[in-house]
Specification:
Helices cover 32% and strands 10% of the residues. α3 packs across α8. With 376 residues, it is of the alpha/beta class. The chain is globular and about 90 Å long.
Amino acid sequence: MVPPADGAQDVPTSTNPSEEQQQEKPYDSSFLIKTTEPRRDREETVAALDNLHTGSRPSPCDVHGSGPLLLSDIPIKAKPVTEGGGGAPVVMGIDEAGRGPVLGPMVYGAAFWAKDTDANVIPKDFNDSKQLSAEKRDELFQKIKDIPDIGFVVRVLHASEISRSMLRKDPYNLNAMSHDSAIQMIRAVVDAGVKIDTCYVDTVGIAGSYQNKLEREFDGHGIRFVVEKKADANYAPCSAGSVVAKVSRDVMTSQWKYSEPGYEPVGGNDFGSGYPSDPKCKEWLEKNFVDSVFGYPDFARFSWAPMKKKMEDESVSMRWEADDDDEDEDATQMKLNGFVVSKKSTTDGKPPKRKRPRLAYFDKLGMTAVTELVVA
């Protein structure tokens, strides 16, 4: 049994406690997804996965850094010999779900198992998760969780992470995020002491370039990379990773915990597929434009074109002082004397008026403007 997180308390009991009172208070398992290290056993893996899927998130959510990455316990055959395992090399597969929707996270999933694992242990009906029914995907995902010979990884890119990455001054595009997420997942498995023999990856962008990138990143680890279109339909590990990604995203979006305090969307989570072309999604977006400044909850991807247009058309117009400064610059690079306050006076003998009022912050710190540069 996993011990309670720091700060967890037992439920108070009376002198003659009932059976219900004797039950332990559920521990806060959020700490289980705050590390990229492998889980200790399958019980802890499932607890961490449940927390990742349906647990509450902080507010505001994911304002910096990468989203959560969960690595399961390592199958005993693949665990390092120094840790009591067999040290057998593994095959691994990686795929994603939720790349195109305007709502919700993009989720990367991976699955791996020892090359010499009995063929009868691995389900034979893995396929591209998008071609399977929801019931079949759920069935296969349950098998993945139930079979300790199969390890898996989940990497969640929340809508807020995608938005701020794509909207920053130097855009970090979705392909780069996808590549880096796959690298993070492989790195987590390698750092756990697992030897990867072959890694199958469903491509994002040009397959050859992506494969070269992975080979450079993991040069010296002896990993053979196979990066192809439809790899999730051709290789069992990649198909299993596809199931992990798709089911994880579906569970998270259907039971989404909004990080905005007290927020409940109009129509609940009935937004269909989350794709901009889906009528249900369009209706949800129309009903849930809730704030003239921030627009939508952080469940939305503000970097998507329909979202940008909605914000431009209906949100409060804002202009940043930095934008004004940029327009006023006569040159692309500020000159050194631009940092010096001019000593020139106006015709009435008074110093020239400031373009903008001095910020109180500088007065509070006792800072004054430079009037002369002295070279030592």
